[in-house]
Amino acid sequence: MQAVWKHKGVMLTRDPQERRIGRLALPYMILFQIVLPIGAPLIDLFALYGLLFGNTWPVLAFWLVFNVLQLLLATFAFRMDNESLRPLWALPLQQFVYRQLMYVVIIESTVSALAGARAHWRHPTRTGDVELTTA
User: Fold this and answer.
1) Nearest to residue 37, comparing CAs of 101, 90, 92, 96?
2) Is the distance from CB of 10 to CB of 21 less than 8 angstroms?
3) pLDDT in tens, 67-99
4) Predicted TM-score (pTM) of this structure
């Protein structure tokens, strides 16, 4: 959100280098980093509603296909980087824990941005009394 707001002026610029950022990168960031994450909790609520009050099997099928596709894409990405596949066991857990936490962060930051609240850097007090120990 901060990057989009900082560079909002390049949307209408005539400079070819900045025009590429303004017409390609910023709409991409707005869609995939702001609009879709804000709408994601609604998708989960509709899925939950479908499980409880609708036809359960299509909802479960879509959820299973989504998770398998996500796992396949993550496996492909890990293979391309020659990384171990061990961390992928936690990917299904991410759907239940981490995503819900991210919803809270995204909604809170969006409300703060719309309200005009400014987030300031929180600097630790520098006292100069840190001691380093050698192992």
Assistant:
1) 101
2) yes
3) 899 899 999 999 999 999 999 998 888 877 888
4) 0.61
Residue labelled with tokens 């969006």: 110
- Counted residue by residue, the chain has a size of 135
**What's the CA gap between 1 and 119, in Å, rounded?**
12
Helices (H) then strands (E): counts for the chain: 7, 0
Q: Are 107 and 90 in contact (CB under 8 A)?
A: no
> For the chain, what are the domain ranges?
2-115
CB distance 3 to 29 below 8 Å: yes
Instruction: Note whether 40 and 99 are within 8 A (CB).
Output: yes
C-alpha 24/C-alpha 22 separation (Å) is 6
Residue with tokens 């520098």: 126
Residue appearing with tokens 């909604």: 107
Q: Rounded distance, CA 125 to CA 135, Å?
A: 27
Give the position of tokens 């303004």: 22
DSSP character at residue 87? G
